[in-house]
Amino acid sequence: MRNVRRKDTGTRLTLTEFKMLVREQFFMLLLDQEGALAAIPKLLPDNASERHAAFTAIREVLSASAAISGELAKRLKRVAELFGVDANEVSNNASNVAPFDPKAKAS
Known about the structure:
Layout: H1 2-7, H2 15-31, H3 33-43, H4 48-62, H5 70-83, H6 87-93
Helix pairs in contact: 2-3, 4-5
């Protein structure tokens, strides 16, 4: 999330404002999931490369700690459709998951 916030060139929210925004969006999803998802395409920029970059950022956050699979992969595919991007193309080009090595030691 820090990397996503660092890359953002728009108006900067404070951490408290950002957390409040995320919390509000979470509750909107709880109250009306289909309505919230249906609104996504209307909120996105017309520029395809900007939509692709935003979706890539979402994918990077989701893949930061584990591989995307199962139910999460299904949901991400639906979001890709809403963004008008090919989830398979993005998944082939971006993976932040390093194999876990239980013997690795911090330096």
